[in-house]
Structures are given as C-alpha cells and as structure tokens.
Amino acid sequence: MAKVNQNYYVPEQSRWPIIGAIALFLLALGAGHLVNESASGQAGIGRYLMMAGVALLAFMLFGWFRHIIHESMTGLYSAQMDRSFRQGMVWFIFSEVMFFLAFFGVLFYARQLAMPWLDGAGSKVMTGQLLWPDFTAHWPLLKTPGGTTTQAMPWHGIPLVNTVILLGSSVTLLFAHTGLEAGRRTRLKGMLLMTVVLGLTFLWLQGYEYLHAYRELGLRLDSGIYGNTFFILTGFHGLHVMLGTLFLTIIWLRIMLRDHFTPQRHFAFQAAAWYWHFVDVVWLCLFVFVYLL
C-alpha cells in the first residue's frame, strides 16, 4: 500500500509534455492531409501521419502514466496532491464538455439558423435566391450546391447497437466500482475487463459504420454540412472512446499485474470512470441530435 507524504510534491522536469505535443501535432497534420486527400481523391501521407500520431500518443500516455504511478506508489504524493489531481480531472472533463458544445453549436447553427436563411426565412428572402436558388430547408441536407447527393445514416442498426453497448459499459463499470469499494476483487477484474471489451466492440462497429457510409451511402466528409457534422461529431467521440478505453486498460493491467488500488485509495480508477461516464453521456446526445432528430 502506498504511503502518504505530508509535503506537497513538486515533480522534476519531464519529457512527456513535449512528446504529447508532437503526437497531437502529427494527428492534426495527418487529419488535415486526410481531408484534402479525400476531397481530391488522391492517396497521400495523411493516414500515415495520423497513425504515427496515435502511436506516439499511446507511447506518451503509457510512459507518463508509468511515471505518475511510480511516484504515487512510492509515497511522494500528499493529501493536497490528491485534491489537486481531483480538481485537475474535473477541469479536464469541463474542457471536454465545452469542446463538444462547440461542435453541437455548429450543428445547431446549421439546422436552426443557416437553413432557414437559405430558404428565405425572415428578412433573408434574397439569400437563398442568390446563393442557392433551388434550396429547400430539410434536415438532413443530402444535396450540396454542386449537386453531390448522399444518403442519411439511419438511427437503427449499428448506431442503436452502439448505444446499447455504451450504456451497458457504464453498468459494468459501475459494478466494477462497487466491487472495488466492497473489496470483491474478482468482480472488479471481471466487470472492468468486460467494460474494456465493450469499448473495443464499440470502436470496431463504428469503423464498420464508416465503411458502410463511404461505400454504400455515399456519405463522406465532402458531402456538405451533413457529412461534415456527422463525421466530426462521431469521429471526435470515437477518439474519446479510444482514449477512455486506453485509460481503463491501464487501470485493469495495474489491478491484474500489480494488485493496485484499495477501497480507500483508488482515485485513478475513479478518474477513468468519470471520463468513461462523460463519454457515454456525450454519445447519448449524439444519438439524439445526429441520428434521431
């Protein structure tokens, strides 16, 4: 069991932040290249830059987590440090809430403001006649001004199955948490592993959904505002599911290999659980506003 330090620990200089910054830069650069390559129909380095970014990000997370775990288990952290971690996690999740609110705001603007203007609502009678004469306000918008058409992704099928999967993963994670607090290690290990498996299943099904959208529905990033908002919202959420699954995998490995966490001291588990429940709530909002409405 880890000791509790009475002094506030100040860590030494670390290489992990700069490695993380490089990983995020590669991800952003690769995503930009991938979007341009998708629009031009030419293969390029976008996917390889993104793969490199994901690999470097995973290396950074595992390395940085290992460093923090070592500091915690050797008794370097005080009660004040524990409160700092809790506050940091709360602010991190709050920043993620604002991140997704920005994209939901884009969806709201397109559906509730831009489309009525193009259709001549209010004082914007000439807007549609000048910009898009044959425009009809109807969501999802399946036709672009250039004449490109697509099909909408239905809410049933994979989206509904993924909704059930994520809701089920919250339940299994809750059982794992209660098992930890009750000292029932077998339930903790089994339910946490099931949560990780459900997260991986969600990601696999989302990848299959994207293939179906591209190959059979003609739904792409260049399919107008509907394609843009669909892939940006679901894609960023998928990235968060991937990150949450990585968090939970590390927690499970700590429990299986090192028998970490006690009913009294398990904030790392709590932080991963907070993040996972946040990801589930975001998906419910996505399912309603992107697929259903």
UniProtKB/TrEMBL annotation:
The membrane topology of this protein is: Multi-pass membrane protein
One biological process term in Gene Ontology? aerobic electron transport chain
Signal peptide per UniProt: none
- List the Gene Ontology MF annotations in alphabetical order: cytochrome-c oxidase activity
Protein family membership: Belongs to the cytochrome c oxidase subunit 3 family.
**Location within or outside the cell:** Cell membrane; Membrane
Pfam families attached here?
A: COX3
Keyword annotations for this protein? Membrane, Translocase, Transmembrane, Transmembrane helix
The transmembrane segments are 16-36, 48-69, 90-110, 155-176, 188-205, 225-253, 274-292
Q: Which EC number(s) are documented for this chain?
A: 7.1.1.9
Which intervals hold domain Heme-copper oxidase subunit III family profile?
A: 4-293
Q: Kindly indicate whether the keyword Translocase belongs to this entry.
A: yes
Protein name (record): cytochrome-c oxidase
Q: Which domain of life is it from?
A: Bacteria
- Which PROSITE patterns does the record match to this protein? COX3
